[in-house]
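Researcher: I'd like a candidate sequence for this fold, 141 residues long. If you have to choose between options at a position, lean toward the conservative one.
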């Protein structure tokens, strides 16, 4: 049983057995953890939660510098983003803002808005009052 194979199954019993037997922070050749593999292979949220419940490392980086949160953002895995944030995943990157999960989310307002409560997040969606102010200001130019 290997994480690469487990991450491609949707069978929660296989996942449960792997979580109990394998190292949940093991790395593959690309530096990816099982949590990253589960996210990129679009595993069910319950499978991701099993890893989180066992203490999967949230801030591990693969060889590209991506964390589980950044992968969840890139792959538009809204439920994974929510669960990672609830577990305390950090938005910032030691490599700067361009390498952060927020930067990856900036083109998808739905996901970017999920990150609002996280330290380092910037609000992208304007309120209706702000929209009106911008609209009025554009006429003044």
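Model: Candidate sequence:
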């Amino acid at each position: 049983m290997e994480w690469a194979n487990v991450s491609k199954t949707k069978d929660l019993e296989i996942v449960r057995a792997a979580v109990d037997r394998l190292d949940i922070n093991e790395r593959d050749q690309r530096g990816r953890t099982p949590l990253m593999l589960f996210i990129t292979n679009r595993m069910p949220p319950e499978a991701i939660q099993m890893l989180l419940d066992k203490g999967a490392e949230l801030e591990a980086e693969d060889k590209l510098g991506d964390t589980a949160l950044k992968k969840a953002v890139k792959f538009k895995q809204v439920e994974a983003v929510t669960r990672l944030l609830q577990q305390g995943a950090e938005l910032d990157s030691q490599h700067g803002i361009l390498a952060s999960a927020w930067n990856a989310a900036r083109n998808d307002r739905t996901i970017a808005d999920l990150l609002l409560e996280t330290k380092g997040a910037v609000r992208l969606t304007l309120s209706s009052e702000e929209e009106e102010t911008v609209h009025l200001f554009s006429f003044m130019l």
